[in-house]
Amino acid sequence: MHIRPVLKGAALMALGAVLLPASWSARATPPSPAPIPSSTASVPGWTDFLDGLRGLPDAILARLPVEQRNDPQIRQEVGRLALSAVAAASIDALAADPNHPVFIPQISNYITTGQPNADTNYRSAKIAPGGTYRLRGRRGSMNLVRIAEGGPRPKQVAGQVNLGGIRPVHDLNALPVDAEGRYNVILSPTKPEGYKGDWWQLDPSSTMLLVRMVGSEWGKEIEPTLSIERLDIPAPRPRPSAAVLEEKLRSIPVSAGFIAPLLVDRVEKLRADGIVNSLRGADMTQLGGLKGQFYYEGAYALKDDEALIVEAPLPERCGYRSLILTNDIYETTDWYNNHSSLNAAQAPADKDGILRIIVSARDPGVPNWLDTAGFATGAIQGRWTDCSSQPVPTVRKVKVADVRKSLPKDTPTITAQERDRLLRDRRAALQQRPLW
Q1: Torsions phi, psi for 144 (to 5 deg)
Q2: How far apart are CA 41 and CA 197, in angstroms?
Q3: Domain-embedded: residue 303
Q4: Does 395 lie in the same domain as 297?
Q5: How many other CB atoms are there within 10 angstroms of residue 393's CB atom?
Q6: CA-based nearest residue to 206, from 167, 147, 151
Q7: How far is C-alpha 265 from the geometric centre of its chain's CA atoms?
């Protein structure tokens, strides 16, 4: 038998003396690095960056009612929302460059500012006003791919929200493609002289492009590929100056401080207006809502044994529709891991042409179910896009035990095992959608 020797006591110290420099004691810690002279110790803007973020959670909480501000759960969710806003602003500061742009992730299941739609992948690119840009890639087969222009961010006025209204929106699916499914389009305020290819007119004051890639049949549709380049300047990117880097650093608290509190009190305002367990049309024009899309929403409040039945006649023609849930601070409920969003491919109408969707904490065992996922209160929001009509659904509250008797007799049954499979399949399909 081979016995491995064990070093103890003085032997271990002797080995340490061999391995470590003679100036180090066997028991001493490595020396600290020499202090940086105070004149160069600080990265300009770094302290202001940190100080600018300290009050962000409090700024969000200040827009909520007292009972929510005092709720430990909501306070931590506010912290998550603040972190989400900082993450988004940091990605933007690191990657956004109007002269050498790239489409970067915007909002998602994990960056929840702005209440993302569950079916949509959002990406954005900063552009320079008046610049000339080219988009290239494969068009794919998504339900909707729209590229909206955005302008300079306006100042946020207390009690008012305005993100600049409607600007031009371009339809990627309307572009012609070659035999390999590739598109090539130029965006500029005026069409380049002698250019014969596809061209979109760009508002000369626009500073951003926001892409919405909307899918209905998760796992079957093919995402478009996107590249963007500025054509009216040289291709190489020079080293960013210290002033530019400092400006980007200082922009993070400003950007996060704008977007994080922006919609946090929207659910509370619905309650104040009496829109509880009911729905009304919502004008999202000033919030950057998609042109051609009609929104409706309302707050919900449910006990564990209660359910809402949301009903609407299905439009004869409809490009896209969905229904999602949010929590009390207007973050979309986690749709990767819960059955908390439904679109046309996932929620068929009944044979009588009525779309019926159930909202509840308990699984009612029917296909068209929205899981509140532990949130007894929150909001319901729906979208009709490019539809022949935009009905605002009616809502009625019943006991979960009475859901089936309130639906058509031929409503299918979903077992617990089938629900588990559905959840796993939707999670896999969502994780396989590219986010960058």
Answers
A1: -135, 135
A2: 53
A3: yes
A4: yes
A5: 20
A6: 151
A7: 18
In this structure, the strands spanning 293-301 and 306-313 are: unpaired
**Residues in the chain, total:** 436
373 located within any domain: yes
Residues 211 and 136 in one domain: yes
- What pLDDT, on a 0 to 100 scale, did the predictor assign at position 250? 97
From residue 138, alpha-carbon distances to 112, 120, 148, 200, 433 in Å are 28, 18, 19, 17, 15
- Asked whether residue 131 falls in the same domain as residue 229, the answer is yes
Helical pair 72-95 and 242-259, crossing angle rounded to 10 deg: 150
pLDDT at 153: 67
- The pLDDT of residue 161 is above 90: no
| Cα dist from 207 to 130, 150, 168, 196, 300, whole Å | 9, 6, 12, 25, 37
pLDDT at 384 over 50: yes
For residue 22, is pLDDT > 50?
A: no
Amino acid symbol at 178: D
Give the SS3 label for residue 95: helix
Classify residue 279: in a domain, yes or no.
yes
Taking only the tens place, the pLDDT of each residue in 88-135 is: 999 999 999 999 999 999 999 999 998 999 999 999 999 999 999 999
Domain hosting residue 66, numbered range: 44-97+237-264
Number of helices (H) and strands (E) in the chain: give both, helices first.
8, 18
Name the helix (H) or strand (E) containing 57: helix 56-61
Closest to 104 measured CA to CA, from 219, 235, 240, 209: 209
- Do the bridges between strand 306-313 and strand 354-360 make them parallel or antiparallel, or are there none, so unpaired? antiparallel
Give the mean pLDDT of the chain: 90
Q: Which residue(s) pair with 371 in the sheet?
A: 360
